[in-house]
Structures are given as C-alpha cells and as structure tokens.
Amino acid sequence: MSFKELKLHPALLENCKELGYETATPIQAKAIPVAISGKDLLGIAKTGSGKTASFVLPILNQLLKDYAGEPSRQPKVLVLTPTRELAMQVTDVFKSLSQNLTRSIKSMAVYGGVSINPQMKAMYGVDILIATPGRLLDLQQSKAVDLYKVETLVLDEADKMLNLGFQKEMEQILDLLPKRRQNMLFSATLSKELEGLNNIVLSNPIVIEIADQKGKEEEELINMSGYFVSDDRKGPLLRHIIRKQEMKQVLVFASSGVKADKVAGKLFKNGIDAASIHGKKSQSARSNALRDFKSGELRVLVATDLISRGIDIDNLPYVINYELPRSPKDFVHRVGRTGRADAEGMAISFVTREETHHFKVILKKMKRYVDMIDSETLDFKP
Ligand code: ADP
Ligand code: MG
Predict the structure, then answer these.
(1) Which of 156, 182, 209 is the last residue before a domain boundary?
(2) Which of 113, 109, 112 is nearest to 135 (CA)?
(3) Which of 18, 60, 139, 224 lies at 20 to 30 Å from 78 by C-alpha?
(4) Does residue 382 fall inside a structural domain?
(5) Residue 48 C-alpha to ligand 2 middle, in angstroms?
(6) Residue 11 bridge partners (DSSP)
(7) Nearest CA to 365 among 324, 312, 314?
(8) CATH number of the domain encompassing residue 168
(9) Domain count of the chain?
(10) Are residues 223 and 150 part of one domain?
C-alpha cells in the first residue's frame, strides 16, 4: 500500500520518500489508520517490519493538525523504551520524519547515564518526549517536565516495558498521566493476554497482528544454523567461522557483561576488530561502540541482551549466539537484529550438549528447524 492512500500530510509523504520508504509495510498499512482514528492499539509484527514508523507517522500527522500552543514543559506525546540506545534510535526516526513540516515539531530523547542538566534545559517546547522510565521520573521529580498533558502514550517493546523489571517505575509513570489518552503498544512478542495490559489500556484495544509466514522456509529472511560445541572450544570456533565465512559485520550475544568483555578481548588479541557493549559500561563507551558498529567501521560487536531489543542495524548479515539466552523471547529478538526490512540474514547458535533440549524448546516456539553441525568434525585449532 502507498503512503498516499493512508491520507498522511503531504510533508510527511515527502519525508517518507526522502528516507526511501516507497510503500507502507503491512503493519504500517494497518496500524496507521487505527492510530489516526485515536483508538487504543496493540501492534504485533515481526522484528524489522517497520513498527517504529507505524506510530511516528500518525503521531506527527496528528500534531500537525493540532493547535500548536505556547511552548511549555508539557509534552503531548510520550514514548517509552526499555533502553537508552532504543530511545535515541526512535528519536532519530521522529527527527527524520519531522523535517520541513508546516510547523516545527520538537522531539527529544531523555535517558540515564548522562548528565541531567542539559535535558532539563532542553525540555522547554518539546512536543514528543522519548524516554527510559528511570530518567523520566527523575526529570518529573525535578519539575523539569509535567506529564498531565500527554495525549498519546506509546510503549515500544511493550512486553518488555510491562515486565516485572519495569513494573514499579511504570506504575509511577502511569499515575502521572491523564486517564484519558490514546495508548499504542508495539512489539514482535506481544500477546493480548499479557499481564499488566489492563493497567495501560482502559477499553478494548484494536489488535493488529501481522501473521508471520512461519514454517514456510523459503519465505524466511532469517536463515539459521547451529553448532554443537563445548564451552572451551567456543572461542576458537567463533574465530574460525568469522574468518572462514569472511564475515564483515557480526553481532555476537553473550550471557553477561563480563563474558562479553572476555569474548571481545580474545577476538581483538587474535587480530579481529571487536568491542563489547553492556549495561556496566559508561554511556559514552556504549554509544561509541554502537555508532561504530552501525556505521560498519567495527567488525564485531559482542553484546548482552541490552541491545537485543529494537536496535536497527542496516543490513546486518550475521548474528551469533555465543551463549543461548534463557528465554525463547530473547532469542526471537536477538536473531531479529538480522533479516530486517526485507534483507536476508544468518543467525548462528552455539549449543552445548547439555543445552540440546533447551535449544529444541526455543526452535519449537519459533516453529523452526535447524540442521546442527558437530564442531568436533571441523578442523580448527583450539
Ligand atoms: P521494527 O520496529 O518492526 O523492528 P523498524 O521500525 O526498526 O522495525 O524498521 C526496520 C527497518 O525498516 C528500518 O531500517 C527502517 O528504516 C526500515 N523501514 C521502515 N519502514 C519502511 C518502509 N515503509 N519502506 C522501507 N523501509 C522501511
Ligand atoms: Mg522496533
């Protein structure tokens, strides 16, 4: 479907063109009209299918119609994300799509790990606030922002935002919002039965679920393979396949920050350009690593699940699970960093013999089958 048929403001159509968006993706085609109608909405569609623009475009469209009002510290739109990196990325999409509009619309990201003062100062006149929960509450408590004029609330990676980990902060934030508002929730792994949903949406939301072509192997953008490998041979195997398959850019997932540092360090020592990213690093180290990886300058990024959610890396060809995640949901999001926006990708998993059953459970949930390679049969030095 063309964006024109979605009755968006001409300036927004122009910006879509500018970004290379020629036709609306399925979730965009279905979600945008519902969002414009003002109804609550749950948008469920696979990783990399364009969910961000599904809320960015109707939000900008609505703000263009509204009376602008005097600049204030009362944003009309609040978008919550689970990580700082995702808040920045979503803000970039808002900014790209709000160029040269008939009135200027200001969007801003606020998140922790950096000083709060510049954020407090810049809050004045912000229409759209994109935030991680902790810093948002800090700003609210410092009276740098009022949330009682929020008309639209978006939860990106909504199932994560409604997880136990964010529960307390989410409850506090919801208390600060007007009861009458539009709610839009998006994720690849969201379900109508999600606990905590009733705290967000008051009435029955419109559920838009774009079915995956599951099981149809030829239509899968994410190819998968797996290696049986013992823990002590994972490092050598990783180096072996990065070299052998001449991987130009690969995202490797490890189970902890300590492990991610170790894996990256070992690669680096062996002449493979690598850096790590995880929650224990400084924000500037996190930002630099992700920037260099996104630009293609850095060959290997070793990460924790910190960046398994939502992060968009243009045409990323490979994801490797150096260690399997515990939850199948995390697996879906990790491998979803590749095979985005109609590009193909490869997801490789390292599986120890003890994890055979766990890996089967994950694949069964994904309705996928993977041919396993026994690393013992491969010729590489330990
Ligand atoms: P999701 O949130 O569903 O995982 P994103 O919103 O991050 O996906 O979009 C994935 C990629 O697809 C981004 O690089 C984005 O620029 C691109 N994209 C989004 N919408 C379109 C479109 N209509 N046409 C082409 N590319 C698009
Ligand atoms: Mg997303």
Answers:
(1) 209
(2) 112
(3) 18
(4) no
(5) 7
(6) none
(7) 324
(8) 3.40.50.300
(9) 2
(10) no
Site to substitute for ligand 1 among 6, 17, 46, 52, most atoms within 8 A of C-beta: 52
CB atoms near residue 210 (< 10 Å): 18
Q: Whose CA is nearest to atom 22 of ligand 1?
A: 21
18/117 same-domain check: yes
Ligand nearest to the CA of 158: 2
pTM, two decimal places: 0.97
**What is the atom index within ligand 1 of the atom nearest the CA of 336?**
4
Q: Are residues 185 and 242 in the same domain?
A: no
Strand residue runs (E) in the chain: 41-44, 77-80, 107-110, 128-131, 152-156, 182-187, 206-209, 222-228, 250-253, 274-277, 300-303, 318-321, 345-351, 372-374
What is the 274 CA–ligand 2 centroid distance (Å)? 25
Burial 236-252 (b: 16+ CB within 10 A, else e): bbbbbbbeeeebebbbb
The residue from 158, 193, 209 where one domain ends is 209
For residue 45, which ligand has an atom nearest its CA?
1
Q: Is the pLDDT of residue 341 over 60?
A: yes
Q: Determine the distance separating the centroid of ligand 2 and the alpha carbon of 50, expressed in angstroms.
A: 7
pLDDT tier for residue 218 given thresholds of 50, 70 and 90: low
Give the position, in ligand 1's atom list, of the atom nearest the Cα of 46. Answer: 3
Q: What is the pLDDT of residue 192?
A: 85
